[in-house]
Design goal:
single chain, 312 residues, alpha/beta, Rossmann fold, 7-stranded mixed β-sheet, 5-stranded mixed β-sheet, binds S-adenosylmethionine
Length: 312
């Protein structure tokens, strides 16, 4: 028989669903009926004659917390819908099969990571657009993307600012990703290189840039992200140059996005490392005469543009 959800508050509901989901194998679905989530003008859990209101967004958030994904609701009689929670399979997450941190091909063209399209994730695209509004790169700007993989952020920059042209450069140590980037973006320049070697050619000879993007790379345990940013600001940024640093606040469970990055030694998402790093980058950039803005949900984008009179 289908579970019937009506008046349970969230304490009782979460426990009931959690117990029922635990009894299912990964990939299996728990079906139940619930009040229609499309009713207007109600807060989460507000009582109604048909049971407590839960919006579709509320169900999606609950599914995420329960390690499940919500299936598309179907009508189930007057004022009710049939909902399905499919238990996620943690072993299907791309990181479980990934090469160790520091392996150049961990994010290569043949890795599972290569299937992920960050700019198809609405919070990422919109946060990046806000970041570009803030740093506002000028027509003709020289732009460098660190850990650019197949160059998606450079492509997004050109599409979001299609009224301007940019001289785009990307660096990554995954040779296969760089090969892919060159095929996809033949007008851009890509280099296979290790960011730990910024002090040696060819990286040391890259010159200066008007905008440096470092999205989801400086946090890598195999890199000293803080030292890299310091060197970039001192030696590779023009006096009027801007910076966008992205720090992940997300992990992929099965194939779905979950708020909060994975931290070694913790089974649950843990924010103290992210908060510490974001605070460091914000403070460092503010001290070096940048105006700093932080935006983004699944990736925190720390955006810095020069204050008037900044000389590098
Ligand atoms: C999580 S991916 C992020 C890719 C892209 N920037 C994005 O936000 O979708 C990290 C990228 O940084 C690259 N990377 C990691 N360590 C590196 C290093 N030491 N030198 C160069 N690239 C590195 C990886 O190969 C990978 O493409």
């Amino acid at each position: 028989m289908l579970l019937h959800v009506a008046d349970d508050d969230l304490f009782a509901l979460a426990r009931r669903l959690q117990d029922a989901l635990r009894a299912r194998a990964p990939g299996e679905t728990l079906w139940f009926t619930a009040p229609d989530p499309d009713r207007r003008g109600l807060y989460e859990g507000e009582p109604t004659p048909d049971g407590r209101h839960r919006s579709l967004a509320g169900w999606v958030m609950l599914a995420e917390e329960l390690g499940a994904t919500l299936l598309t609701p179907q009508p189930a009689g007057p004022g009710r819908v049939r909902l399905g929670l499919r238990r996620l399979d943690r072993d299907a997450s791309w990181q479980t099969r990934a090469a160790p941190s520091g392996d150049p091909e961990k994010y290569g063209a043949d890795s599972d990571f290569a299937r992920i399209r960050k700019f198809e994730e609405p919070p990422f695209l919109f946060a990046f657009a806000r970041a570009l509004d803030f740093v506002d790169p000028a027509d003709g700007a020289r732009v460098l993307a660190l850990g650019c993989n197949r160059g998606d952020e450079l492509d997004a920059l050109c599409r979001l600012r299609s009224d301007r042209t940019f001289e785009c450069h990307g660096i990554d140590h995954a040779a296969s990703a760089i090969e892919r980037a060159r095929t996809l973006h033949p007008t851009m320049t890509f280099l296979t290189a290790d960011l730990q070697r910024l002090d040696a050619p060819p990286l040391a000879e890259m010159g200066r840039f008007d905008l440096i993007l470092a999205l989801n790379v400086l946090h890598s345990p195999s890199l000293d992200g803080k030292a890299i940013l310091q060197r970039l600001v001192a030696e590779h940024l023009t006096p009027a140059g801007a910076v966008i640093v992205g720090l992940p606040n997300v992990r992929y469970v099965d194939h779905t996005l979950h708020h909060g990055a994975r931290v070694k030694g913790f089974s649950h998402p843990e924010l103290s490392v992210l908060v510490r790093d974001a605070a460091y980058y914000r403070r460092y950039l503010a001290r070096h005469k940048f105006r700093v803005m932080i935006t983004g949900r699944h990736t925190l984008l720390i955006c810095a543009r020069p204050l008037p009179g900044r000389r590098g």
